[in-house]
Automatic annotation (TrEMBL), chain A:
Family annotation (Gene3D superfamilies): 3.30.70.3270
Protein name: NADH-quinone oxidoreductase subunit I
Residue ranges of every copy of the 4Fe-4S ferredoxin-type domain listed in the record: 61-91, 103-132
Quaternary state and interactors: NDH-1 is composed of 14 different subunits. Subunits NuoA, H, J, K, L, M, N constitute the membrane sector of the complex.
Top-level enzyme category: translocase
Cofactor: [4Fe-4S] cluster
Subcellular location: Cell membrane
GO biological process: aerobic respiration
Chemical reaction(s) catalysed: a quinone + NADH + 5 H(+)(in) = a quinol + NAD(+) + 4 H(+)(out)
Gene behind this protein: nuoI
MF-aspect GO terms: 4 iron, 4 sulfur cluster binding; iron ion binding; NADH dehydrogenase (quinone) (non-electrogenic) activity; quinone binding
Function: NDH-1 shuttles electrons from NADH, via FMN and iron-sulfur (Fe-S) centers, to quinones in the respiratory chain. The immediate electron acceptor for the enzyme in this species is believed to be ubiquinone. Couples the redox reaction to proton translocation (for every two electrons transferred, four hydrogen ions are translocated across the cytoplasmic membrane), and thus conserves the redox energy in a proton gradient.
TrEMBL record, chain B:
SMART domains xref list: Molybdop_Fe4S4 (SM00926), NADH-G_4Fe-4S_3 (SM00929)
Gene3D superfamilies: 3.10.20.740, 3.30.200.210, 3.30.70.20
Domain 4Fe-4S Mo/W bis-MGD-type: 216-272
UniProt keyword annotations, A-Z: 2Fe-2S, 4Fe-4S, Iron, Iron-sulfur, Membrane, Metal-binding, NAD, Translocase
Organism: Bdellovibrio bacteriovorus
Lineage of origin: Bacteria, Pseudomonadati, Bdellovibrionota, Bdellovibrionia, Bdellovibrionales
Sample GO molecular function, one term: 2 iron, 2 sulfur cluster binding
The protein, known as: NADH dehydrogenase
Amino acid sequence: MSVMQNNSEKAKWYLPGVLGGLGITMKHLLVNLLNRKKMMTLNYPEEKYEYSPRFKGNHVLTVKKDGSLRCTACMLCATNCPAECIKIVAAEHNDPHVEKFPISYEIDILRCVFCGYCEEACPVDAIRLGPEWQTPGVNGANFIYDINHLAYRPNLKGGIQTHVDDEERLKSGI
Amino acid sequence: MPKCTINGKEVEVKEGTSIIEAMQQSGDRIAHYCWHPGLSVAGVCRLCMVEIEGNPRVQIACNTMVTEGMKINNTSEKVRDAVKWGLDFHLINHPLDCPICDQAGECGLQDQYMEYGKYDPEMAEAKVKKHKVVDLGPTVVLDSERCILCSRCVRFTEEVSKTNELGIFNRGDRSEIGTHEGVELNNKYSLNTVDICPVGALTSKDFRFRQRVWYLKDAETVCNGCSNGCNVKVYFNKEGFFRVKPVYNEKVNGYWMCDEGRDIYKFVNKETRLLKAQVRNASGWTEMAGGAAAKNAHEVLKNTSGDSLALVLTAQYTVEEFDAIVSTFVNEFKTKKVFFWINNKETFDSFDGLLLRGDKNPNTKGLLKVLEKHGITATWADLTQGLGNGSIKTVVVAGPENQAVFPDLQERVKELSKAQNLIWLQAGKDDALMSLTGNVWLIPTKTFVEKDGTFINHAGLEQKFKKVTTIVSEALTLTEAALLLAGKNLTIPTATAQPFMPMNQREDQVTLEARKKNEFVFRRGSL
């Protein structure tokens, strides 16, 4: 790295710079005071910024129309996960059309790098990275997200539905 | 001995060899579903197409015999095209179940599609829906939608198990595999149908949904379920063992194994194992490391050596271990009171005509051989008498690994507990042992997947097997236990092979060549 130094006589005059900076601050103060609606800052946490829907935040497990999990426990997300933070236990479902479903689906969010590979790997659109980005927690346990949190947390309002349902899929002969 | 040319290579085969067998011999890859080396030829999948010089049409390789001077190839565009459209036909009604299907990862359809398929589907009609989760019997579940009607399972029940439970019913694209009216797939070899199913139509209830196959490593070993000594592959990962499959060995088991043998992984897993040694004296149980407990037991053995000391062996350990512990007792402790614990003498010689033997110990012949070598003639009656009149004070028992085949375990524990000091070497947990009173040492031992060794099967065939992995690190082999019980120390074997560094180099100098040897090679499964 090269360090440039300006040793000219003019550079010793610091007061114009200080006043210039103060001027900018005063300008912003006056503008903000006069029309407060256009202020650049937010009163966090009362006010929150909404990122674009493409933003990769906290995971969501989607649900079918009847509210049950869409996931078939195929483990592709867990296989594809570079951080190895997904843990799934599969079990047999009573409904022969469903056959297999996860009885436990856990994401260790402290290991997760939010790369979105799980989303990419999922063949049935069961896992998505949602727009939520606030992930406070008190201790380690708060950072292991289970099915309840991933699919049915209050913010999701009963779960996010997938486009294609099993019944529709079977009816259309796929 | 006809000679033929396969893909430009000259191959000499036996008279009456089919082209597909000749190709297996020459190492050429060929697509196939219905052909299985252990079953008859059906020729229903039409995938093993080859082009024979002088023949205008492609032909199936499984049902065409090699003749002198035949020129065969299966790499031409014509053959690949035939396989591709044959595959299209197979996949018309096949559901996209890969996320749910247990076979994903080792599925013939996936392999074949990646090699020959990759076409755009041209079917506009809806798929024919068939029965989904059909309960065929106590061990197998059928999904007839996934079935490609190769008839391997049907031929297996006809030709190998000879039980004829399965059949193909209905016609055309409504044909389905199923069991005959009022019969269920319930024979002692039923899970072989799962092994030979090239797609995920037949799945094992035991393994179903427990692991995806790409998470499993495999290793070859010898089954310790009975004295037949079938060659098997065990599948495991860090969570434990999950399934067992047969490995081809013409002399022992062919391509098959029994359902009973598939349960041998269960007593190996951590949840059923004795993880720490338990030592009991007047003040109660204490937990110890395995080696420490054996050292501790040495104090007692030292004082009771000679005629008041007895050794009881089950035929579940390897020849090397028997040799080590018996010679320790004969030479160090000067006792010839070594007894063979026979679990079910009446059924020892029974045989079901295919694989299953009545003797549920893998190494009865090996134990008898070692006992003979040391000139041991003691019978169980001597032990009962010795325990009854108090002349036997200390008993060392090498208990069964596979407790399920020892129905008399409780009785024998009760009988042996008459001894003042009972040193019990055992792999699995057992309530009868934990409820013992008096001086007891429970020392964990390694199971057959955790050690190298030899089993001698019913026919006297010696089969060596290698260690697969370690499950209980504190467990001892009988060889190690014998050393520690005799008051000696374990030595860690040092490698005597050539040192890795060339002699004329500085110790910290690593050449590029040596670095390459160390390079981590990343391999993802065989898909």
